[in-house]
Amino acid sequence: MTLETKSVAELSEPEAKAELERLAVEIGRHDEAYHGQDAPLIPDAEYDALKRRNAEIEERFPHFKLADSPSEKVGAAVAEGFGKVTHRVPMLSLDNAFSDEDVRDFVHSVYRFLGQLPDQSIAFTAEPKIDGLSMSIRYEDGELVTAATRGDGTTGENVTANVKTIAEIPNRLPKGAPPVVEIRGEVYMAKEDFLALNARMEAEGKPVYVNPRNTAAGSLRQLDAAVTASRKLKFFAYSWGEMADMPADTQYGMIEMFKAWGFPVNPLTVRLESIEALIAHYNEIGIARADLPYDIDGVVYKVDRLDLQGRLGFRSRSPRWAIAHKFPAEKGATRLTAIDIQVGRTGALTPVARLEPITVGGVVVTNATLHNAEEIARLGIKIGDTVQIQRAGDVIPQVLGVVLSPDDAVPFEFPTICPCELKTPVIREETASGVEGVVRRCSGEFACPFQRKEHLKHFVSRKAFDIDGLGEKQIEYFYDDPSLPIRQPADIFTLKARDEANGLQRLKNRDGYGETSAQKLFDAIEARREIALDRLIFGLGIRHVGEQTAKTLARAYGTWASLHEAALAIAAGDKASAEEMDALDDIGPAVVEAVGRFFGEPHNIAMVDALVAELTIQEAEKPSQDSPVAGLTVVFTGSLEKMTRDEAKAMAERLGAKVAGSVSKKTDILVAGPGAGSKLAKAQELGVRTMDEDGWFELVR
Q1: Distance of alpha carbon 96 from alpha carbon 48, whole angstroms
Q2: 526-549 pLDDT tens trace
Q3: Angle at Cα 149 formed by Cα 74 and Cα 306, nearest 5°?
Q4: Residue 107 has what pLDDT?
């Protein structure tokens, strides 16, 4: 039995730590493929299973949770060709439930957070989870002014003109509506309209579409609104963003108000008060699913009272008051024709199964990830086998096992040499706990062309430097260009100067470019010479340093000079600097070690120095100064009696404080409840200001 096939209950502490590190890499790779490259490698169900395993291990071993844990992330890239809209209220994703027990756990967690017993006094709404495209529609003084996709949760695509072609969405609200209203819901295509569109495409000799969800998303992203208008898109309203006034005090009441304003709402939405009723409604919808006129992939449960939603609040990527109960995946069987190796940004070698095309749930699938050599061995698959696959959603499926293995099936040997041109050895790293990892990596790092290209793609991605006109295709183009190459980040910012010295080979004279498009690219690069500190940190592509971790580091150190000094000190073995970084909330040893390794490599230092010389780096946003604890570092310890730990942390952060998980010389305040132990003793030893809960409330009131 391999480490990743062990149940969470069977994991030892070293194994749990190693598995969290493996999952962070695996999930991060899939996040990058889906959000950064728009090229998902696995189906929703398999991705959900990885996230779920990560969450279960974190729940059992919370002290091993990584600073940039996958459980803290959300996002999808904004496509090129559209303007951007910043959401006044972020559009977050939902956590998932896959079993009745998961639903029970969710409901019980709501009661626990609110400090109540599960006495069925809290009502929930239950609504079908439409398989479409999330949309936020803003009205000002009753007029529809903007419509935007979810994007990365903070910034979406401006598709206002296209949304105005959807007949079910009113262009104007009735009198009496608040002056600012943001309606959120799902744009979808009915099954009947999808089949009619495909019949028309087939009659015209054109390629047919894969499924209604993809077709709806593609139709809404047309630059020509006339194309969108011809596709008969529909809409269900189920939520809201910014509202000048709240016309109701419950989720169900808001849905009724949307209906009164002229929006279509799902007729299967109900209000229920028990776990058994929620599960029964889920089962009823599951039975009726095939006969519904639209595709759904689950049922969403939400706490009905809005004041309770407010108390429950949000995690970094999802609300605590809602969850999506997903339907099971669909399965099929086909022949495995080959196994190819892909090399990612971190040098990880991933085997990819090539399959004879098969239609599963209305989608033609040809590829599946096999994760690693251990997974291939566990499944016992050979090239030529007939394998069972599973898919959910519209992406690449999961290989479940072998159905039939012919005599001429060929075993696959995992390469010991990277397929890159350097032909460097493939290594298996040990985790921080000394357990040999399952991930095999090319040892060439930045010298490896696969990794160098992927690092550059990450650098220009939406959440990093986000340079218009310099995406993945352009990185591929310039990387291989002998006269104007981009081989490291600094090359981007010297591109214009080098181009001006190229004579007839200048970019404006090349196919695919002209004087205007070349100048637009140079202007876009110039606009990114001034960059936010957290975007720079994230863009460097340091292992284990994701978007949220980059923001944490930026807020903690404030300036590039401070962070750079600390990173170099950690690389040089300075324990005090490492302990200071490790004490930051949500930062753990894996991040500290990764930062030290990165800044301990001479080629990385040279790369960073060359880049920073081209930039003006903004200081991190200073915390609010409106409260007595703004800008202070606070640690909570012991058993809190008047608030839960989550509520305490959320309160402190709202007041502009930084919440740390351990006491250090940088700690300003320790709030100690009954049972406070070593943290209180250390605070007293360091002379840190300490107080109980009453003192905290007295201070911040």
Answers
A1: 7
A2: 999 999 999 999 999 887 888 888
A3: 70
A4: 95
Separation of alpha carbons 194 and 337, rounded Å: 32
Percent over 90 (pLDDT), the chain: 41
pLDDT per residue as tens digits for the range 644-666:
777 887 788 778 888 888 888 88
Q: Does pLDDT of 155 surpass 60?
A: yes
Q: Which of 77-86, 549-558, 656-665, 671-680 has the lowest mean pLDDT?
A: 77-86
Please give the C-alpha separations between residue 121 and each of 282, 308, 319, in angstroms, as whole numbers: 20, 12, 20
* Distance (Å, whole) CA 660 – CA 146: 39
User: How far is Cα 701 from Cα 352, in angstroms, rounded to an integer?
Assistant: 57
**How far are the Cα atoms of 54, 149, 485, 519, 641 from residue 469, in angstroms, in the given order?**
36, 20, 16, 11, 54
CA distance 411 to 666: 57
* pLDDT tens digits for range 325-376: 998 777 778 899 999 998 877 788 889 999 987 767 656 678 888 888 888 9
Contact 435, 506 (CB under 8 A): no
The CATH number of the structural domain formed by 84-326 is: 3.30.470.30
User: Is residue 400 scored above 70 in pLDDT?
Assistant: yes
Residue 650 amino acid letter: A
Q: What percent of the chain has pLDDT over 70?
A: 91
Homologous superfamily (CATH) of 532-618 is 5' to 3' exonuclease, C-terminal subdomain (1.10.150.20)
Q: Coil, strand, or helix at residue 695?
A: helix
Count Cα atoms within 13 angstroms, Cβ side, for 370: 32
Query: Domain ranges in the chain?
Result: 84-326, 467-527, 532-618, 633-700
Helix (H) or strand (E) holding 698: helix 693-700
Catalytic residue status for 622: no
- Residue-level pLDDT at 359: 65
Please report where in the chains the tokens 């105005």 appear, as a residue: 164
- CATH code for the part of the protein at 633-700: 3.40.50.10190
* 245-258 per-residue burial string, b: 16 or more CB within 10 A, e: under 16: eebeebbbbbbebb
Provide the pLDDT for residue 661.
80
Is pLDDT at 464 greater than 70 in this prediction? yes
Q: pLDDT value at position 622?
A: 61
Sequence letter at residue 545: V
Other Cβ atoms within 10 Å of 347 Cβ, number: 25
* Whole-number Å distance between alpha carbons of 622 and 393: 42
The one catalytic residue in 51, 73, 129, 463 is 129
Q: Torsion angle of alpha carbons 488, 490, 493, 495, nearest 10°?
A: -50
- For the chain, how many residues are written? 701
> Among candidates 133, 169, 167, which has minimal Cα distance to 150?
133
Beta strands in 513-587 (DSSP E): 530-532
pLDDT top residue among 300 and 62: 300
Q: Is 60 exceeded by the pLDDT of residue 78? A: no
Tokens representing residue 33 in the block? 């493929």
Residue 78 and residue 84 in contact, taking contact as beta carbons nearer than 8 Å: yes
**Over 70: is that where the pLDDT of 445 sits?**
no
| Residue 351 bridge partners (DSSP) | 341
Burial-class residue 496 by CB neighbours within 10 Å (0-12, 13-18, 19+): middle
Give the neighbor-by-neighbor strand order of the sheet with 143-149: 143-149, 133-140, 180-188, 234-243
| H or E segment to which residue 303 belongs | strand 296-303
DSSP collapsed to 3 states, 621-690: CCCCCCCCCCCCEEEEECCCCCCCHHHHHHHHHHCCCEECCCCCCCCCEEEECCCCCHHHHHHHHHCCEE
